[in-house]
Each structure stands twice: as structure tokens, then as C-alpha cells.
Amino acid sequence: MNTDLPPDVVAFADSARHSLTRLGGVDLALRTEVDRDLREPVSRALASIGAFELDVRGDLDELLAGAQLCRIAGAVALAWPVVDELLSVDGARLALINPAAPRVDHGDLGGEWVGADLDGEAHSLEFGEPRSRAKLGPFLMPASLGPARPPVAADDVARHLVLGSWRVLGSLEAALDQVVEHVGARKQFGQALAEFQAVRFAIADASVAVRGLEELAKFTTWRLVTASAAHHSADACALRLHAVDTAVAVLRTCHQMLGAIGFCDEHDVSVLDRHLQPLLRLPVSAESLALRLVPTVEAHEFETLFS
Amino acid sequence: MDYELGDAAQALRVRLRELIAQEIPPGFLGAFSANPDDLALTQAFCKTLADEGLLCLAWPTEYGGGGGSVWEQTVVREEMWAHHEPRGAQYMGVNWVGPALMRHGTDEQRAKHLPAISAGEVIWCQGFSEPEAGTDLASLRTRAVLDDDGWLISGQKVWTSYALMAQWCVLAACTDPAAKSNERLTLFIVPMDREGIEVRPIASMLGPHHLNEVFLDSVRVTEADVLGKVGAGWKVMRDALAYERVGIARYARCESLLSRLQDALVADGLWDALAPALKSRWVRALISLRVARLLAYKAIAQQNEGIDPAAAAAARIVTTTCDQTVAELLLEAAGAASLDAGPDAPIHGAIDDHWRYAQAATVSSGTIEVQRILVARSVLGSSR
Ligand SMILES: Cc1cc2nc3c(=O)[nH]c(=O)nc-3n(C[C@H](O)[C@H](O)[C@H](O)COP(=O)(O)OP(=O)(O)OC[C@H]3O[C@@H](n4cnc5c(N)ncnc54)[C@H](O)[C@@H]3O)c2cc1C
Known about the structure:
heterodimer, A: alpha+beta, Butyryl-CoA Dehydrogenase, subunit A, domain 3, five-stranded mixed beta sheet, two-stranded antiparallel ribbon, 10% strand, B: alpha+beta, Butyryl-CoA Dehydrogenase, subunit A, domain 2, 3 domains, four-stranded mixed beta sheet, four-stranded antiparallel beta sheet, globular, binds flavin-adenine dinucleotide
């Protein structure tokens, strides 16, 4: 067994991280809330690192490279719908939606969009005016369903869920890094917060949760390429559900450990948290994801040592 | 044993709901919005409450209060919080500045400030926290330097809620850096328009007005501005915060929001399709909220007995945790429209509003870790 990411993928991730951080990192995402034109340089940077040439429907390395790109996009709260773009269908960005009330992050970017539900039912999407400044999911656009389109492949939906989960992971890692730094530096009662057992335990739990999510993300990505197609949807759904649960818990810890400063717009954790919300809530709630997995479990198809 | 709040308290609840229905629009989310009309609305509502003697119901009648029982006060706290605090920032003045003035203020201070608070005419802010002094409040650094005319205060406060709206501030400063930690501080009553005070708002996920920085540059204060005695600031602060023992009646807002969302989901035909696990969480949340309410009642019932110092901390831990549990539940249950904000969103945008503000429930006015330390100390004894 080898649980490491391939060296090529790591090298690509390093260069992507370097270029997206240099572009402005989380601060750029915050500024983009008031000036949406700042997405222009993001798109150029993505093009320059070859993001749009990645074939995430291809082999494991390509998929993993896409996954690392999404992870970095999460770490800097990149104001770009990277997952939707990586999984474009005939040049139209692919968003996962709840057809009852479609909402799409960065739907105002223009170009063509396809919205698919988790079963792959697809429509063209139409957008109106951007919402006035909302704090949670500031780039989220209400959409309406246009003409029906051919169904989206189940594997595309699965890869979408998985790449989105990598994005969640990236945000959580970045948030936790910030918190670790903060509790090491901030002193109360004459000692660093990191000296208090309550703080240590909270950070330890968050760290365990993030490590677990990372391993599940790697395993699930590998399974998408190696396991039989019948398992892909359930594996992807399971990863996303776990990503959401982990995110809610880890972000809670991050805020708690930061105290008041973590709520400020100026603080990266506030931006990471707010910008991540659409991925955590949409296209369906965590409980709905869990319900989708029940039949898989009932059919003894959920991968365990005994399935 | 009798859990009835009493006829007077029940009648009060009915009256408060009538007044709220008359004066507060259904989509009201509090005074702390970008819309100045919301502040105006709360100021007008405070006048209405003051006219009926309900604004300072808890205060003794001699200070313009209604002499209400603790259970009537509880009803006021619950109804106000449930309806997005239509008193706006007034609760700061009503809940602790007023009582602190009654106990520690001079005759002149009482005569000047109490009628204004009980008439709903002024907004107060609390200048305690500093960049380096959060949980460790006693170590705050803002300095009040003595001279012939009194003191000159210089330093910085942070997180000061409503500082831009407030006319007055209770400011904590260090008058004697060499003194023992419980004798270093003094509280001053300072008008916010005094020379040398600058307020800068802090943009935050909680929304406008909740967080500000206050810069103090040689702000002149005199003996007449001291609240309590010089060097007794820590004692007055602790005493004042004791009025806030059980804290905000957060459970009341949670119960109201769950009830409103349930009605909205039923009306839209969405309730039946809600994931069974969500319904089960819903039920559990309601049970936890009931527990939170009962723990608050227990702490209030013991208010004057001082039996169990952990009672208020326990109530706070449960109610602030419920706030966050319910915030998650509301977002999930609202489905695809859950992240919509503003008046057209589900239940007038109250879900987004609640989720954002609930994040701070376990931090503001005493973090949950501090509450846990208090409970642990009561159960296990002191760790040192
Ligand atoms: C919405 C809001 C409104 C506020 N309004 C006001 C106001 O009007 N006036 C005012 O003066 N202040 C106000 N505050 C500030 C508030 O009182 C502080 O945020 C609070 O005391 C915590 O301080 P801190 O944010 O600096 O966190 P820190 O003290 O830095 O704490 C960070 C984390 O470390 C933990 N920690 C610290 N010490 C220990 C320990 N010994 N053991 C275990 N854990 C520990 C804390 O519990 C917390 O989880 C407000 C805060 C908020 C969020």
C-alpha cells in the first residue's frame, strides 16, 4: 500500500499553491466581495497553471491533480467555480443544484451553465441579477431552470461531489493552520493559549478530524478510478457527507479558539467559513446525503471489511 | 414545587406580544442593521415600553422602575430576545449599567443617568475588552494617569458593541499599574462625544454595529466620572456582570425560530418531505431548549441564595450550545433556500441572521471555556 500522493501531483500542487497565494490568497477573495471584476485575474492565473487543461474525467493522476487544485482553491477561498469548470459539459460549467430552488456560486460569471441534481437530471441554467451583499456565500446566485439537457453521467456527479469535498478539505486545513498559529502566539493570563489543556484538546480533536477527512478524500478519489462504477456514487456521497460534518465541527472549533477576532471580515477564518457555506449546504443538506446512502447500506454495498 | 411563572408574568407576556405585534414589523431582525430605520424603530419601541413602565420593569420604583418580580423580568428577557430584541441596544443600560449605578453610583450620577435609561433615551456601551485583554480582562492596559484635574485616559478598547450608536460608555482603565490585580482598575462613566475618543467600526460576519474599536487619546475624566471607588473597578465589573448571570434568553429566540420555520415549511408543503433525521434533530433541539430554559429558571430561582455558583454557568453553557445547534438545524431544514439572506428569504432572513450571530454565542460576554471552568470548579474544587 502507498497512501502518498504521486510526486508529479505534489509538484503541480506546489506550483498551483504558490501562484494562487501570490495572487492575493484569502484577502483577494474578501476584496472580490465588493469588486467582482477581481475574478478576472483569478481566471488568468488558473489558465497559466494549466488548470483548464486538466482532464479530471481521465486517469487517477489527472483526477488527483484536479483534486489538489480544488484543495488549494479551498485554502485561499478562491473566487472561482473551479469544480464546475473542471467538469464542464460541452463548454458549459456544471453545477450541482437542487432543482426546487437552484443556487449557484459565481453564477453571474456569464457563459453557459448546466445544472444537474444528484441523479444527473440536467437543465440549462439562467441567472438574474446578483444578490445584494450577503455574508454567507457572497457569490451565490439564484438561478432558474432553462431547457432540459441530456442527463449528466453519474460519474460526473460523483467526481463533482468528490472535488467539492477536496475544496472543503483545503479550507479546513487553512483555517486550522491559522488557529494553530493564533493559539501559539496569543497570550492570556501570562501564557500562550496553546498552553491551556482545554485549547490543546479542542485543537487535537479538530486536527484528527481534518486528518481523517484527508485520508477519506484520497481513498475515495482512488476508488473512483479503481472500484466498479456501481460504487462511485455512494463513495462520493459518503465523502461529501463526511466533509460537511467535519467542516461544521472544525470551523466551530476554529471560531471558538480565535475568540472575537475570528468573526472579523479581516480574519481569514471568517472569509473561509462564509465562502465555504454553499458547498456545505448545497445542493442538498447533510441529512439528505445520509438518506441517499441508506439503500447502499441496506444492500450491503457500502464498502467495509465485510461487504 | 410549582413551575408557574405567576399570573402577573403571564399577563405581562400577553401584553408584550400585543405591543410587539402593534409596533414591530414581522421581518424585524434587530436594531443592528445597515438600515437606520431599525434603530429608530427600537428607540420608539423603548419609549412605548417606558410609557407603560415596562422598560425597566426590574428596577425599584424609586428609580423609575416597575418593581417587577424576577419572573416578570424573565418574561421580558424572553419576549424581547425571541422577537429580535426590539429594545435595541437599550438592554445594556437597563440590564447592568442601571443596576450598577444604583449600587455603586453617586447621587448625582443616579439622578442624571437613571431617569434617562428608564425613559429609553440613551444607549450605553461597555468598554472593557482590549486587544491584549479578552478572557484575561483583569490585565487590561488602558491607562488613566492622574493629574491635578483628574485623569487622562489613553489606550484602546476593542469589540465594543454599539459604540457608534452609544452616547455613554462604562470604561475600564488601569489607575494603578503597581497595585494588586483586583485593585488596578477603575470604572469611568464617559460620554462618547468627549474629546479624544474615536470609534472605528469593525466589519464582521455578525453584521454591523456588533464590533467596534474605540481609541482613547488623553481623554479627560474627573472624580465625578468615577463609577464606584477608585481602584474598585474589578469589583464593580464583577458585580455588574453578576446581573447578567444567566445571560441572554437565547432559548426563547431558538424556540420562536423553530416554530416559525415549522409553520413556513408546513405552509409550503415541505414539512412532510423533511429528512426523518432532521425531524428527529428538531425534536431533540426542542428538548434541549426546554432544558436550557429550566436551567435558567433554576439559576434565577437561586439568584439571592448563592448556593451553587455553577448554576448560571450551566444555564449559559446549555443555552449557548443550543443556539449553535439550532442554527445548523435551521440551515439544513430550510433546504435549497437556506443561504438566502434578506427579507425575501425563508422567515424573513432570520435563518441567515441567526446562524451568523450564533457563532459568537459561546464567545461574547464570557466564553464557554470560562463557564466550564466555573462548573468544574464547583464540581471538582479549585485546580490550584
Ligand atoms: C459579539 C460580541 C460582542 C462583544 N461585545 C463586547 C462589548 O460590548 N464590550 C466588551 O468589552 N467586550 C465585548 N466583547 C468581547 C468579549 O467579551 C471577548 O470576546 C471575550 O471575553 C473573549 O475574549 P477574546 O475574544 O479576546 O478571546 P481570547 O481571550 O483570546 O480567547 C480565545 C480562546 O481561548 C480560550 N481561553 C482563554 N483563556 C483560557 C483559559 N484560561 N483556559 C481555557 N481556555 C481559555 C477562550 O475561551 C477562547 O476560546 C464582545 C465579543 C463578541 C464576540
